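Researcher: Please generate the 3D structure of the following complex. Treat every line as part of one assembly.
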Amino acid sequence: MDCVRRKEVRPFEILSFSYDSSVKLYDPMNPHCIRKCMNSYGAANPLEVAVKHNTGLSVRQTAWKLLGAGRVARLLPTLLLLLMTFPLAKTACGQGAGALLGVVESRTEEAQEFQNIQGPKYQTLWVAPDATGKLAVLATIPELIVPRRDGFWHAGVKQVCEFRTDPLGENGNERITQVVWSAPIAKAGVVPITQPCTNHAPGDYAPPYGRSEADKNKISQCGFELRDIEFASPVVLSIRKHTGQSEDCEARGGRYNVDYSVIRYQPNEEVSVRQMLGREALKAYLKALPSHGQGDDGEDCGATTGADTGWRIGRNAGRWGVYAHQDLGYFGCAADALVRFRLPSSLTGDTSTPPDSKQLSAKFKGYEDAYSSPTGDMLMVVTSRVQELPVCCF
Amino acid sequence: MLLLTLPAHPIVMMQWSTGTHVEDWTSQLDKIAKQRLPEAVIHVGPASQ
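Model: Done. Output below.
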């Protein structure tokens, strides 16, 4: 990749550079070029991508290159982004808007050992012009902060351990449950549980099957219910729920379920498509829903039903969209399909026009998604193929 | 020169602010970032989900 190539990527000129092991991720062909870029712009961080504001265009346009949504993010959790405009810029970009960005710092993870199950973590970034007019991350908050009609709220997922006695009352079981909570910013979220676990010595536990006489009254640790927030707006949260068993309680594998729901804030009640979006949305939901679900290997695994409580909100073509989802059993058996229904901005909180994905795909290799500000002066581009980013020197 | 650093993680929320609200949000979010937010608490009772 040489400097001539940069002309091909107008109006967004991309500079990416890094050092040490990440160099090969960006441009294994030309590490010298990367070092030169770093020197030119005084970059100090090993994982940086610069997007240059093109001053020759009529509109203020800036692209932010968000790297690693997905695979690369897992490999490089501290990956940073660097956005640059040049001194010749007629106006500083992004002066008309600020972006409140909620991101997943780490997803929930199941584990064979109960003690190793981890809940998800979120982070909110406030990106806006600073006192000098330069775009910057002005606040980083280690929670999801959602702007709602009555002010800012915070939301998250708390992991709890619930104890239940079996119907015979001889022994009991501990179960890990992750609960979504939300509350006004000054208040604590409340996580209701029926009976919390209490402290026990390691010798008080035993797997539920094949017990000896000595172990028959011991406590088992079976079952977990893990949750991730996949979408947050001022009105709803879209939740993914993964239900499964630890190795001691289900050694055969594959006995897990994944389901989705959309919940309101306080109380965190699930809402169906019809309740939230009306009759037309329900029609579109049922039309989009496949007649049968598929398992992990693509096999037909059962018929779907008319229930509209299983749904999720995810990205499609530069917008937040509705997906029908029905969990139909173990081994990933489910039906999932995009619903042709436009989510209202009153639900998403997004009044912007989706960016032109064709144009952006042509300009950004590995283009996956983009977010545009309502005023159209800021654009965030998400890519996955970081290793193929064009690298230019000046 | 305008510099910006962002962590690279999957996005679950994008809410924009424009005009005079930008300054207002900056002020409010700055305060939120500087305080310790109350942690979620467990309430023993019927579960809601």
